[in-house]
Sequence to fold (438 residues):
Amino acid sequence: MVSSTFAGVMNPRIFASLTLTVAFASAALASDWPFIRGPLGDGSSPEKISKRWPDSGPKAIWRVPSERGFSSFAVSGGQAFTIEQRDVEGVSQEVVVARHADTGKEVWLKALGAAKFDGGGDAGTGDNKGGDGPRSSPTVDGGRVYVTTGKLALVCLAAQSGEELWRHDLLKEFAGRNIQWQNAASPLVEGDLVLVAGGGAGESLLAFNKTDGRVAWKAFDETMTHATPTAATIHGQRQVIFFVKSGLLAVEPSSGRELWRYAFPFRISTAASPVVAGDIVYCSAGYGVGAGAVKLVRADGKFTATEIYRLAGDKPLANHWSTPVLHNGHLYGMFQFKEYGSGPVKCVEVATGKVKWEKSGFGPGHVVLVDGHVLALGDAGQLVLIKATPDKYEEVARAQVLSGKCWTTPVVAGGRVYARSTKEAVSLDLGLKSASAK
Fold:
C-alpha cells in the first residue's frame, strides 16, 4: 500500500474562523444543490417547502425531454446541470447539459467523448434492464462544473459557457481500472481539491487542484466502486470516506493520509455512499452483502473503528444504490435489492440497525431530506413526501410527476424540485409562497 505522509496542523482560532466562513457560505447558498449529496453533503436541504400539494400534484415550472441516463441534477447559479447520452456529430457521446433553472431552456451542451454503457433499454420497472446512459452526476463549485465520465475522464468546465478548462484521463494517465457498468461516482469537491477514485496501484485515490487540475496527491492500491465518497468531520477531524472494494477507507482530504479502515465485503457492485451519524458510520450494498456500521473512537490522534453491527443478506438492510438520509438518529431510504416497482422505504435506527417501519411500493429510487420530511422519488416516477419520524409511516403528499424509469435523485433548490427519468426532466414548484397563494 502506498500512502501520503503529510499531516497538517491548524491553529484553533483559524479553524474557528474557517468554520464560521463555511457556515455563512452554506447559508448564502441555501437555494443551490451543487452536489449529488446536496449542499451539506448528506442528502439534506436546509430549505423550507410546501407540504400542501394540489390534488393534481405540484405545479410543473417546466418539463423537457431528457433521455438515456441516470445522472441527477446539480443546481447552482441559476442553472441546472446534468449528464445525458446524445448523438453528437454522428457519435453517441456523454454530454453535459446546462439548462436555465427557471425555464428549462438549454443554455449550452458540452460533448465529453464517445459513450457506450451496458444495459437493455428502458424496459419499465418490472426488471433490472437499466438502459444506456451515464450514471454519474455533475458537481458545481466556484463557477466550475466537474464531471467524471463512465470511462473515467475527469473534466472541469466553465459553468457559464461550458468551456473545457482542464481534463484528466484516469485510465491513461493514472493506470486506471474501470469496473462493470463503468463509473457511476460523482467527483467530490473538498476545499481546494477535487477527489475521485479510479487510478491504478499507488494512485487509486486521487486529489486534484480544483482550479488548474494539478495533482495534489495520489495514494493507495484500491479498486473503486460505484459509490460517491462522503466528506464529514468526525471527532474534530475533517475526512473523506471512500467506499472501495476492500471496504471503507477514510483519508485526510488535504494530504491523503489514511485515518481509519473498515473491512467490508464486496460482491458484484457497491453503489450507496457511506452515511455519517456523529461517530457512527453506516454502509450497505446489495447482492447479498447487507449492511454494517462502525463506531469511531479517537485517542492520541489515532482513530479506531469498531463494528457495532453487521447484518448480512438482502434483508433487512440492503441499499442497492440508494443512499439513505439521516434525521434524529434514524436512517430513511430505499432499503431493498432488485425489488423493482415494489421495494420499500424504511426507517432504521442507525445505532442498532433495527427497522422501525417500512412501506412497500417504491422500488430502487432515491430520497432526500428537506424540512423535517423525506422526499422520495420512486422508480415509476411517483414523488412522495413522508414525515421523518420513527413512530410510523406517515405520508403527507404524493404525486405522479414523471414517466419513464426514475433511478435518479430528486434535488431541492430555491423552493423547487428538479428530477429526471429515462424519458424526461421536470422542475416542480414546492415554494411556500406559491402554496400560500392558492
Notes: Confidence is low (pLDDT under 50) at residues 1-29, 120-126.
